[in-house]
Amino acid sequence: MNELMEKIIAFRNKRDWEQFHTGENLAKSISIEAAELLELYQWQHEAEDMTHLKEELADVLIYALLMVDRYQFNFEDIILEKLAKNAEKYPVKNAYGNHKKYNQFEGK
Predict the structure, then answer these.
(1) pTM, to two decimals
(2) Which domain holds residue 54?
C-alpha cells in the first residue's frame, strides 16, 4: 500500500468509520461529492474558487480510493485495464478530436 493510501486508511480507522464504508455508502458518497464538485460550475464555464475546487476533488478521490480499499483492488491495475479497454473502443483514427461515443463512429 502506498503512503497516500496508508494515510487515508489511518484517518478512517482512527475514527472507526470503516463500519460505515459499505460499497453502497461509498458509491453514494462519491456521487454526492461529485455533485458538490459540479456545483462549482453551476451557471459558469469555470470554477472561480480554486481552494474549494481542490477540496471537492479531493473528497471524490478519497472516497474512490476508499472503495478501492473496500474491494482490495489495485488502483493502478484497474486504471490500466480500463485505459486498455478504452483504447480498443476509441482508436486514435476514429477518436482524435472527436467527442462522439464509440458506438457513434462512422462504420459502427
Answers:
(1) 0.89
(2) 1-73
